Amino acid sequence: MKNNRLRISHLSLLLTFDAQVKKMRQLLILIFFYSLTGTLLNGQTPLGFTQQDIPAGYEDLLNKKSEIRESDFLNESIVDLVRVSMRDSVLTKKKQRHRVAGAQFITWLAGLRWESINMKRMKIVGTERRGLRVPEKDFFTEYDVNWNLIPHLDAYEDIVFQGNQIQKERGRKAKKGIYERIQFNKHPDEAGEDNRMRYKIHCELTPPKLYRPMLDQLFYPCMRPTTLESHPHFGESRPTIGLYGVWCLDCNHKCHPEIHPYEWIWWLNLHPEFQKDDGSKQWLVGLIKESSNRFSKWSKGPRVGKITIPFVEKLNEKKIRIEIETLVYDKLLPEELAKENLPSGAFTLSKPSQIFSVGDQFVIEITAKDLIQ
What we know:
The protein is an alpha+beta fold. It is 14% helix and 31% strand.
């Protein structure tokens, strides 16, 4: 049974950055992305499990990339294993409004606003419905990169249903029939597509203008004509992703529920051409600050967040290799990092590599590309 035993753990990353106020009240922010290739990081005690008693979901990581790519339900189950948080996960203000000079009283009088459904930021996992929507140009300070996710997991279907019910209670007009709870099989090849489309989760963020060309090339498509299909981190029009942000009603548009802004974003790279169908896994992870001027209380610098990424490796491997690559980032804030309770000897991106021994069983080698000074 030795080859069937697994070590299960997570790789935790703590990210900190600041927002710098520039002319026209635009925000230039730090975006800090990791591209991770590896199969395990066990930070403390190795855990041994047989195939029969592995915690739910972890065994899915042993599937080949081609198998994961073929099943939205499987892909979402894996992406849902990621845990995220922000230092300010709890909101201090329920509503936010457009900040247009000379028009704030009008927007207040007309009831135009974003209103949080939950005073704590929420995680959403789903599969893109029809392809990422990217605007042609900025509208004032807005440049929303929009996802429309269809969830296949019960927890997120329930969240969407709750949001639709709240919208209905507000008495706003919407498409007929979307408010009834619709039962369907969770496997897309056995479910009616029309039913699933009614559980769409709309998600928006304005990435910083200065960094959009770099983000577009190195992280995810956010400028035309780049598409999800042509990007090396996707290779398909309907990928599965995870997002973390404010779950709110957009009462500028019929009070429909949405995640706005999302700040954490992550996914498993399953590109059919660029990713070998072996046991390694490459995660793309981003922490992005909303850069429009609409959410001064919901996205206030400095941004400090933590993400925990799952890895699994068979016990017969004596050396585990993890590669961390920084893609797009700006000024780091060591004083903010110092406020967190980090373990002694934690790996930082200021050194090229470090080896951690876990008893006499195995070692972990972490290598960083593009060191951050």
